[in-house]
């Protein structure tokens, strides 16, 4: 009677699987720390003329908006534009920071697709 080949899992495959689980655990632990770190950050965005400042967390949670009196004098439509500019700037900086931190977290782990 011929011997079966089993499931095709040799010792090498088991070791690879263990390494993959360890990497996943490292990423999970690092992601939790990163989430906490991003939550504590305050990232500022500014309008083109600097009269409006928006502060967001590293997780893109809005924290505050500061509007200089000169911006109020420009009227509702211009003020809306300035607030939008500041929000976009803060959001862009926040997502760039998050992306950079994620790259730091996953660098050296040799994860496919990252």
CATH H-level homologous superfamily name: Nucleoid-associated protein YbaB-like domain
Helicity range of the residues? 55-70%
CATH class: Alpha Beta
Strand content: 5-15%
- Please state how the strands of the largest beta sheet are arranged side by side: 1-2-3
The largest sheet, given as strand count, sense and whether it forms a barrel, is: 3 strands, antiparallel
**How large is the count of helical segments?**
3
Shape: rod-shaped
Can you describe this structure in just a few lines?
Belongs to the YbaB/EbfC family. This protein has 3 helices and 3 strands; from the N terminus they run αβββαα. It has 114 residues and is α+β, with helices and mostly antiparallel strands.
How would you sum up this structure, described in words?
Strands 1-2-3 form a three-stranded antiparallel β-sheet. The protein is rod-shaped and about 75 Å long. It starts with 10 loop residues before the first helix and ends in an 8-residue tail after the last helix. It has one domain: Ybab, Chain: A. The chain has helices spanning 11-40, 69-72, 76-106, and strands at residues 43-46, 52-56, 62-67. The protein has 114 residues and is α+β, with helices and mostly antiparallel strands. The longest helix is centred in the C-terminal third of the chain and has 31 residues, at 76-106. A hairpin with a 5-residue loop joins strand 1 and strand 2 (52-56). It is built from three helices and three strands. Helix 1 packs antiparallel against helix 3 (76-106). GO terms for molecular function: DNA binding. Pfam families: YbaB_DNA_bd. Keywords: Cytoplasm, DNA-binding.
